């Protein structure tokens, strides 16, 4: 079991073996992160660049810590002060970074497909850290890692509910593709305007309300909601309304299976998609996700470096 | 000078027969089974002699965006595709909304001398959707129809007035049917594939709503509306209904809409050469379009030749402009329909020249017959080649077929009695 490719672009075409390989690899790094001295020199002399065309302190920091713990030199590049504003194309920017002999480019970009485009046109290894509404594979892998850590089997014995803005969520896509491959039971739920047309592609049961989403679930993944959207879509009436019909609270989680866990890719809108009684409650594994995120990203960076030979 | 085309099969919209064609000056002077003497002889054995194709929908980007294509490179691409008459859309810079631009476009094309360029003028000044252009003046200058293609006319009142006024001059309006209030920044067809790829979708209904509106306005005004690039099954149903009711509505489809589906975007990993507006739809829509090509509901095949520079297309899918080039892939893609038994050769001629000639009232085009203008495409249905830099005449290469193997092409193109293109030369 291993992963042999140049890039990590998404989970849609990952095999079960490839997924499990990353989960195993991350386990070793998680142990390392629990040591006093958290550094190892697997990536000494290597350079990774975090190219973030979209703000995300959380994901960027996670990748940065991961690279540094592996001994890599890591550079952050963000679009607000970058050449993007001067009209340079994504391919040009990627090629410039590759020309500076960077080994891995961690790319966050507002356009779906940007990571694929970058990978096709550069020699550097690309890690997709979120492209538009498409995929966020490291998040899905760390979600699965967290599930496993809390005793959930990654097969048809586990039922996962994904709730929130399914249409625009790259986390939902990456989670759903990987869970499909593993044969897990997936349920999805969203207010209709946040559900894509032809949602059957997710191969998931589409729920009619929060109660149905929670009932019988072992895992509930709540997505971050952005109520105001500048993309021409009709915005949601209010956060009050959202919380009332689509938010997760203690009463609803009581419908889920015993030992159910709640995940969220962060940052949370408290009182909107997640009530504080859940976010800080016994079912929440959100901080564990964050912790495991570093280990998973170490596993990804280390694997891609090994594949570069 | 006399040119003879020998041993080929003449194809018209209602007939197909073997004969020799004699051209003298700019006319077809004789069609005969006898040997003919001529200065130049073209052997058309195994080939079809069709009327020069009339493409009712092209963008030559001239004036304003000549780096994508200009009237010269556009004309060259046209004749290399067997096309001898092109209707150019008005979304140039400046916009073709006044007679001097129209005249200049025609002048430049005449000077180049490869095709007849017939400008489609804008409906509204500056494509602003508010004030009508001087339609009478534009018609006098040589414009043949009106369209704000690319930017739909959102006001029903403006569209109504455009239909009423263009009718006064014996002309018509072409609808780029899109209800933009339903756009939501969509970049592809809204369906399974957009759900998988996480790209913003455009619902079919965005087109169907606009087709319905413009058809109803044609009913109101008794004017002729031509629907450009129909892409959805239900649009065709609406048009069929209107026809039955006696509304003066015609329509065109593009080769890309009957050849590709949104699934190609999935298979080709966000390649922006599959990005066009209206977007590639689903297999069910392709089937409906093919059915409508067969049944006679579709009047015209037009390319919507829309060149964009490579630099503009090798970018993130949502940032790329809409549109692909099409003049040189029109013949192979349409012949494929013939080979697949969807349409006959005669119907191909009807769709690619005869109907457009009729619609535009071009009495000496669209038919291979004595006395007609010698606009001729000699088409080899079996020739195989790679559509690459050597073949391409456009300045742009934004085609999903670029670099691919194609079968069938115009091997000799004659415009007004002059050989303007020979394959491989
Ligand atoms: Zn158009």
In round numbers, the mean pLDDT of chain A is 94
Low-confidence region ranges of chain B:
none
Mean pLDDT of chain B: 97
Query: Can you count the beta strands of chain B?
Result: 18
Number of E-state strands of chain A: 9
The share of residues in helices of chain B is: 25-40%
What's the number of helices of chain B? 13
* 3D shape of chain A: globular
Beta-strand content bin of chain A: 5-15%
Shape of chain B: globular
Query: What strand line-up does the widest sheet of chain A have?
Result: 7-6-5-8-9
Largest interface: A-B, 32 and 24 residues
User: Main β-sheet of chain A, in a few words?
Assistant: 5 strands, parallel
Overall description:
The complex is a heterodimer of chains A (309) and B (425). Chain A is 39% helix and 14% strand. By secondary structure, chain A is α/β, with parallel strands linked by helices. In chain A, the strands form two sheets. Chain A has a five-stranded parallel sheet with strand order 7-6-5-8-9. Chain A has a four-stranded parallel sheet with strand order 2-1-3-4, sandwiched between helices. Chain A is globular and about 55 Å long. The two termini of chain A are 18 Å apart. Chain B has 425 residues and is an alpha/beta fold. Chain B has helices spanning 71-80, 99-112, 135-141, 156-168, 192-197, 204-221, 233-244, 255-259, 263-267, 283-295, 310-313, 330-339, 345-359, and strands spanning 2-12, 15-24, 27-32, 40-43, 48-51, 53-58, 83-88, 116-121, 145-146, 173-175, 188-189, 201-202, 225-227, 249-253, 300-301, 376-386, 405-415, 418-422. The model of chain B has no long low-confidence stretch (mean pLDDT 97). In chain B, the strands form four sheets. In chain B, strands 1, 2, 3, 4, 5, 16, 17 and 18 form an eight-stranded mixed sheet that branches. In chain B, strands 6-7-8-9 form a four-stranded parallel sheet. A four-stranded parallel sheet of chain B has the order 10-13-14-15. In chain B, a hairpin with a 2-residue loop joins strand 1 and strand 2 (15-24). The chains are: A alpha/beta (309), B alpha/beta (425). At the A-B interface, helix 4 of A face helix 5 of B. Bound molecules: zinc ion. Zinc ion binds at residues 149-150, 176, 228-229 of chain B. Chain A: It comes from Campylobacter californiensis. Chain A: This is Aspartate carbamoyltransferase. Chain A: Residues 157-303 form the Aspartate/ornithine carbamoyltransferase Asp/Orn-binding domain. Chain A: Carbamoyl phosphate binds at residues 58-59, 108, 136, 139, 266-267. Chain A: Keywords: Pyrimidine biosynthesis, Transferase.
């Amino acid at each position: 079991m291993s992963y042999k490719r140049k890039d990590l672009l998404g989970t849609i075409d990952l095999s079960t073996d490839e997924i499990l390989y990353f989960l195993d690899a991350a386990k070793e790094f998680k142990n390392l992160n629990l040591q006093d001295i958290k550094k190892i020199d697997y990536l000494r002399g290597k350079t990774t660049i975090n190219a973030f065309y979209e703000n995300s302190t959380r994901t960027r920091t996670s990748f940065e810590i991961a690279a540094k713990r592996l001994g890599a030199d890591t550079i952050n590049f963000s679009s607000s002060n970058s050449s993007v504003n001067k009209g340079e194309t994504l391919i040009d920017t990627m090629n410039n970074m590759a020309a500076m002999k960077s080994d891995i480019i961690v790319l966050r970009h507002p356009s779906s497909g940007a990571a694929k485009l970058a990978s096709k046109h550069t020699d550097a290894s690309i890690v997709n850290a979120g492209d538009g509404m498409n995929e966020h594979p490291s998040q899905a892998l760390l979600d699965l890692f967290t599930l496993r850590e809390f005793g959930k089997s990654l097969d048809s014995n586990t039922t996962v509910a994904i709730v929130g803005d399914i249409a625009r969520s790259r986390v939902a896509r990456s989670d759903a593709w990987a869970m499909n491959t593993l044969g897990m039971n997936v349920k999805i739920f969203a207010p209709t305007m946040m559900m894509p047309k032809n949602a059957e592609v997710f191969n998931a049961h589409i729920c009619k309300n929060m109660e149905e989403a929670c009932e019988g679930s072992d895992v509930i993944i709540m997505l971050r909601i952005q109520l105001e959207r500048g993309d021409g879509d009709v915005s949601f009436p209010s956060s009050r309304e959202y919380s009332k019909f689509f938010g997760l609270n203690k009463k609803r989680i009581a419908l889920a299976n015993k030992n159910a866990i709640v995940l969220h890719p962060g940052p949370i809108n408290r009182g909107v998609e997640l009530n504080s009684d859940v976010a800080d409650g016994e079912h929440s594994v959100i901080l564990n996700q964050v912790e495991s995120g570093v280990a998973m990203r170490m596993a990804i960076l280390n694997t891609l470096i090994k594949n570069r030979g | 000078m006399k040119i003879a085309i020998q041993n080929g099969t003449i194809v018209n919209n209602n007939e197909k027969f073997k004969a020799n064609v004699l051209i003298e000056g700019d006319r077809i002077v004789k069609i005969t089974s006898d040997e003919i003497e001529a200065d130049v002889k073209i052997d058309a054995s195994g080939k079809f002699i069709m009327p020069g194709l009339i493409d009712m929908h092209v963008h030559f980007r001239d004036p304003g965006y000549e780096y994508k294509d200009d009237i010269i490179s556009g004309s060259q691409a046209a004749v290399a595709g067997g096309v001898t008459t092109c209707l150019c859309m008005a979304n140039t810079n400046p916009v073709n909304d006044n007679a001097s631009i129209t005249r200049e476009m025609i002048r430049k094309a005449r000077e180049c001398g490869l095709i007849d360029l017939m400008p489609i003028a804008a409906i509204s000044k500056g494509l602003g959707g508010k004030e009508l252009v001087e339609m009478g003046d534009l018609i006098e200058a040589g414009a043949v129809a009106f369209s704000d293609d690319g930017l739909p006319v959102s006001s029903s009142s403006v569209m109504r007035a455009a239909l009423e006024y263009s009718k006064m001059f014996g002309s018509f309006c072409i609808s780029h049917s899109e209800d933009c209030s339903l756009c939501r920044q969509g970049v592809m067809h809204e369906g399974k594939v957009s759900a998988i790829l996480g790209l913003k979708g455009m619902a079919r209904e965005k087109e169907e709503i606009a087709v319905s509106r413009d058809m109803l306005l044609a009913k109101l005004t008794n004017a002729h509306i031509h629907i450009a690039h129909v892409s959805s099954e239900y649009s065709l149903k609406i048009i069929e209904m209107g026809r039955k009711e006696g509304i003066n509505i015609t329509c065109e489809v593009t080769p890309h809409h009957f050849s590709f589906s949104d699934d190609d975007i999935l298979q080709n990993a966000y390649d922006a050469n599959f990005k066009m507006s209206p977007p590639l739809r689903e297999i069910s829509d392709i089937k409906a379009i093919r059915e409508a090509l067969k049944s006679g509901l579709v009047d015209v095949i037009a390319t919507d030749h829309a060149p964009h520079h490579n630099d503009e297309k090798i970018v993130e899918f949502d940032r790329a402009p809409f549109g692909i080039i099409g003049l040189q892939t029109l013949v192979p893609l349409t012949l494929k329909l013939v080979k697949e038994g969807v349409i006959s050769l005669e119907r191909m001629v009807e769709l690619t020249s005869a109907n457009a000639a009729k619609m535009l009232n071009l009495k000496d085009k669209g038919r291979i017959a004595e006395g007609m203008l010698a606009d001729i495409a000699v088409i080899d249905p079996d020739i195989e080649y790679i559509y690459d830099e050597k073949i391409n005449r456009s300045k742009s290469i934004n085609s999903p077929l670029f670099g691919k193997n194609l079968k069938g092409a115009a091997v000799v193109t004659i415009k007004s009695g002059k050989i303007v293109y020979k394959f491989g030369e």
